[in-house]
TrEMBL record:
InterPro entries: Ala_racemase/Decarboxylase_C, De-COase2_N, Orn/DAP/Arg_de-COase, Orn_de-COase, PLP-binding_barrel. The active site is at C326 (proton donor). It comes from the Bacteria. It comes from Tolumonas auensis (strain DSM 9187 / NBRC 110442 / TA 4). Pfam families: Orn_Arg_deC_N (PF02784). The modification N6-(pyridoxal phosphate)lysine is found at K52. One of its GO terms (cellular component) is cytoplasm. This is Ornithine decarboxylase. One of its GO terms (molecular function) is ornithine decarboxylase activity. Belongs to the Orn/Lys/Arg decarboxylase class-II family. Residues 29-264 form the Orn/DAP/Arg decarboxylase 2 N-terminal domain. Keywords: Lyase, Pyridoxal phosphate.
Length: 386
């Protein structure tokens, strides 16, 4: 299986015949392409890939080779860093709420930068005063995004200075500010508002001799989930962000924590038809992957992934795509036009790298899809199946 070369044009049917179904095909070239595009769109900003949407070593290894940093939130994510021999100086730990054991585990690994947003969290750093460097997470509510992270985490902009003063009085080393405006944002307005507000906090703090060195602008950078599959113009999306960052006080180091933007385009799902039935004037196709599996993001992340039957021919008819479990909510598409499919035919889902496999369950004991790692930039090479 190692180093086996498959034909330049990927035939998902052959992959399933060889490696089984369901599969997720992870293309490292897509990871590289996204990292480079965002690096160009945000010059001067050091990127730390947020592991949460796809904590897979193939992504981590690709990004390590590109010189990317990493954004961790849990001990399990620290373990992925250890497995891939990532330099802890390239890591930040950004969970605003941690247990003492989480802080200790990250510090033992060597990651020094942590996030806080309230006084209770500050107390936890007293024993690690001389080691830990802190970022204060500020919240900017974003009702426009479906995943609005500012309710759950972050202090209000008004609370920032008092918290910075308190940390200083406690002898803790706060090095900067961070925020996360929410995931898959429709435009860069919130990023711009948050940067502008943080620029002011940085100046106000400096006026009180609290000299911060870092501004971390978080994640949220969107991708195109449309059926057309067109590339999203991230350079244009980031133009207002570049402008806002040009007003950040000189000497401030800039960071970002992209997750979805880097990982979403890199995985393609391949599921197979297990059975079919005629119900309510539609053909129901029962697939071996579903809402409890790779398509979990349709529930948790509110995304409708582009799905197709690329090898089927004939006239399209109304169909339903259902997942394999015995639960009635496990339906991927209840109104999709597809040519007639047979048992064993495949359904392909695109843009399935972020918040898919990561949140998949094994409900009903249907195992998670295997991840097949390829690199379409070299030859298409089967790197691993796990
Ligand atoms: C989830 C998360 C990210 C990544 O967000 P995306 O919208 O996927 O880019 C970055 N930082 C933190 C703290 C997160 O929780």
């Amino acid at each position: 299986m190692n180093n086996e070369i498959v034909p330049a044009e990927l035939d998902y049917r052959e992959l399933v015949a060889t490696y089984g179904s369901p599969l997720l095909v992870l293309d490292q070239a897509a990871v590289r392409k996204q990292y480079r595009a965002l690096t160009q769109a945000l010059p001067g900003v050091r990127l730390h890939y947020a592991l949460k949407p796809l904590p897979h070593s193939a992504v981590v290894a690709t990004l390590k080779a590109e010189g990317c940093g990493f954004d961790l939130a849990t001990n399990g994510e620290v373990d992925v860093m250890l497995e891939n021999q990532i330099n802890p100086d390239d890591c930040i730990h950004t969970h605003p709420i941690k247990r003492d054991g989480d802080i200790r585990y990250a510090l033992e690994y060597g990651c020094k930068v942590f996030v806080f947003d309230n006084p209770v969290e500050l107390d936890k750093f007293l024993p690690y005063q001389d080691k830990a460097e802190l970022l204060l997470r500020v919240s900017f509510p974003n009702p426009e995004t479906k995943v609005d992270l500012s309710k759950k985490f972050g202090c209000t902009p008004e609370a920032a200075l008092p918290l910075l003063r308190k940390a200083k009085a406690m002898g803790l080393n706060v090095i900067g500010l961070s925020f996360h405006v929410g995931s898959q944002v429709p435009n860069s307005k919130r990023h711009v508002e948050a940067i502008t507000s943080c620029n002011q906090i940085l100046r106000d703090a400096a006026a009180e001799d609290i000299n911060l060195q870092v501004l971390d602008i978080g994640g949220g950078f969107p991708v195109n989930y449309g059926a057309d599959g067109a590339d999203f113009d991230i350079y244009e999306f980031c133009a207002p962000i570049r402008e806002a960052l040009s007003h950040t006080p000189k000497g401030i180091r800039l960071l970002a924590e992209p997750g979805r933007f880097i990982s979403a385009p890199c995985m393609t799902s391949v599921a197979s038809v297990m059975g079919k039935a005629e119900r309510f004037e539609r053909t129901w196709y029962y697939l071996d992957d579903g809402l409890y599996g790779s398509y979990s993001g349709q529930l948790f992340d509110h995304i409708n992934y582009p799905k197709s039957a690329p090898y089927a021919t004939g006239e399209a008819k109304p169909a339903v795509l259902a997942g394999p479990t015995c639960d009635s909510i496990d339906v991927l598409a209840d109104d999709i036009d597809l040519p007639e499919l047979d048992v064993g035919d495949v359904i392909v889902g695109k843009m399935m790298g972020a918040y898919t496999w990561a949140s998949a369950t094994e409900f009903n004991f249907f195992r998670k899809a295997s991840i097949l790692v390829i690199d379409s930039q070299e030859a298409i090479e089967i790197k691993a199946v796990a």
